[in-house]
Amino acid sequence: MKKSIIILALIVIIIKVNAQWQQTNCPIMSINCLSIKGSGIFTGTNGNGAYLSLNGGSSWTAINHNLASTDVLSFVIKGDTIFTGTENGVFWSPDNGTNWTAANVGLPTDPYVYALVISENNIFAGIAFGGGVYLSSNNGSTWATVNTGLADTMVTSLIINGSSIFTGTFGGGVYLSSNNGSSWVAVNTGLGNDTVWSFATKGDTIFAGTYNGVYLSSDNGSSWESAGLSDEYITSFVISGSDIFAGTFGGGVYLSSDNGGSWTTVNTGLSDNATYIYALAISDDTIFAGTDAAGVWKQSLSQVTGIKEIDDNRSNFSIYPNPVNDYIIINTNDIDKKDFEIFDSFGNLVFKNRIIDQKQKIGLSLLSGMYLCRFNDFNTKPQKFIVVK
């Protein structure tokens, strides 16, 4: 029995493109962190302070007045103010980094501030080398330690998830505070590595990047499970819609579009020394990667994911049956020198054939999964179908 395809008003088209990373003109090669504020791209460097680009990385300006040439390790933005964590403590700027003011009252001596997060009026600073977590409730004017229950004070990362604060440590795994940092409890059940360098949240899911892969928790840290990349050192995450990007030290950038169920490398164009990623950030339709020894790189999101959205009503063909097993029938009134193309969920072209009849049966040998098909003239709206074996 013939089954018609329901054409969606908005369909996600998977198109294989020539994805290509490009190196920006950042003059500093060793990058620790990245942050986006409006059209500004802030980069923290290893030993050379902070730099700012207002034109997508085409040019960069040093923004080190009162900051000095130092290791800049983290950024967080609160309204019009940007805070940075450095090897010399916390600094803040109200004018996009033109001027910086130290905000270190109450912080320990030589505070390497690896992480900064904001929850309402509270700023939390994660300090490595035994400093633990510090809290400021007055925009950084003063700080107080909040380490009760934090058995490992080598803090490498922080993230806020609702009313919960998670801290990642160097050797002690993950700790959780549900009372604004007043007390902490270890939450490491199922966590396969106890050094946690990075976090990300996506809906109710928390991702932790460790020395040995990605772990996720869907119950606010009560339990963790492996989300793959078990042979990679995960330094950073960034999320765009349903896509999760993971930066690794030596393996480049990985992409998952199924909540960590599977990962694929997206490294085309990166030089060998650019696969040592320390930071990721997204500005509009561009993803930026800060590397250990090759500066800052960028690529269009639509290229790196191979995803393009089209919102229109074009459709001059139908397909059936759906789900598909070993063949598909194409109905069309427009067969003028057109090829019929099928793409898998990663944007790879897996089938291409010239259409010569208005009703044409095509045998297929595809694995089970979701696919999209179209004519190659771009004037038809692609359609989804499922292969079931």
In short:
The protein has 389 residues and is an all-beta fold. It has one helix at 301-304, and strands at 11-14, 22-23, 31-37, 40-45, 50-53, 61-62, 72-78, 81-86, 89-93, 101-102, 113-119, 122-127, 132-136, 144-145, 155-161, 164-169, 174-177, 185-186, 196-202, 205-210, 213-217, 225-226, 234-240, 243-248, 252-256, 264-265, 277-283, 286-291, 296-300, 307-310, 317-320, 327-332, 339-343, 349-354, 359-363, 369-375, 383-387.
Q: Keywords for this structure?
A:
mainly beta, 4-stranded antiparallel β-sheet, disordered N terminus, Immunoglobulin-like, Methylamine Dehydrogenase, Chain H, 389 residues
Give the DSSP E fraction (strand runs of 2 or more residues).
Answer: over 45%
Work out the number of β strands: 37
SS summary, helix count: 1
Mean of all residue-level pLDDT scores: 86
Q: Report the C-alpha radius of gyration, rounded.
A: 24 Å
> What would the CATH topology of the largest domain be?
Methylamine Dehydrogenase, Chain H
CATH architecture grouping of the largest domain? 7 Propeller
Under CATH, the homologous superfamily of the largest domain reads: YVTN repeat-like/Quinoprotein amine dehydrogenase
How many domains make up the 3D coordinates? 2
Task: State the end-to-end CA separation.
Answer: 19 Å
Name the overall outline.
Answer: elongated
Helix and strand composition category? mainly beta
Instruction: Give the C-level CATH assignment of the largest domain.
Output: Mainly Beta
Largest sheet: 4 strands, antiparallel
Strand order of the largest sheet: 2-29-28-27
The stretches of 5 or more residues where confidence is low (pLDDT under 50) are 1-18, 307-314
> Which percent bin holds the helix content?
under 10%
